[in-house]
Design brief:
By secondary structure, the chain is mostly beta strands. About 10% of the residues lie in helices and about 45% in strands. It is built from one helix and eleven strands, in the order αβββββββββββ. It has one helix at about 1-20, and strands at about 35, 50, 55-60, 70-75, 80-90, 95-105, 115-120, 125-135, 140-145, 155-165, 170-184. Strands 1, 3, 4, 6, 9 and 11 form a six-stranded antiparallel β-sheet that branches. β7 (about 115-120) and β8 form a beta hairpin. The protein is globular and about 50 Å long.
């Protein structure tokens, strides 16, 4: 009887000390919560992003960032060229990734020749343009979002912003800020 009480007491102490949780928890058991990109507002410059030259800029009183001090600026030169900004994150199995971002457009253009395409490529799913924004997007910051859906395996998700500007049709600048990558 004394051995039974000692064994029961030891088991109770073990459960209390461990919270009743098994010892072999894996990374896959991690909750699907939180923001997973280290530099969503470009406050650390281009850290964590693949960017073209001169894209990450500091805002000023005339063109402030959405939040913080920095944002990514595309086009705005009235020359024919493209700018690309992209980043890749890992989405754990069973998690959905939602990408929220803010865009501001300033322009003197009157046709739809300048644009900003926003895409989301996810492992196992063909890349897709989610938004195609033109000169008429508005000079105030506007929020957009896109989502990956869930899967049974870990995946990578690449968010990309591709701006194209054509010379001679007016100047269009696309600003992007606060690109958050939230798991749920």
């Amino acid at each position: 009887m004394k051995a039974f009480i000692t064994t029961a007491w030891a088991a109770a102490l073990l459960l209390a000390a461990t919270g009743g949780a098994p010892h072999d928890r894996t990374a896959a058991d991690a909750p699907c919560t939180g923001q997973i990109h280290a530099n969503p507002g470009f406050e650390l410059g281009s850290t964590g992003w693949t960017v073209g030259p001169r894209m990450v800029v500091l805002g000023d009183t005339a063109r402030p960032a959405h939040t913080g001090l920095a944002y990514a600026a595309f086009a705005g030169l009235d020359v024919t060229h493209t700018d690309l900004l992209r980043t890749t994150v890992t989405v754990p199995a069973g998690c959905d990734l939602t990408v929220h971002f803010w865009v501001r457009t300033t322009t003197t253009e009157t046709s739809r020749s300048d644009y900003l395409n926003v895409g989301l490529a996810v492992t196992g799913i063909p890349p897709k343009t989610r938004f195609s924004l033109a000169f008429d997007g508005g000079s105030q910051w506007r929020q957009y979002s896109m989502s990956t859906g869930t899967a049974t395996t870990d995946r990578t998700a690449t968010a990309s912003f591709l701006a194209s500007e054509t010379a001679g049709n007016g100047v269009t600048a696309f600003d992007v800020d606060d690109v958050t990558f939230t798991l749920s």
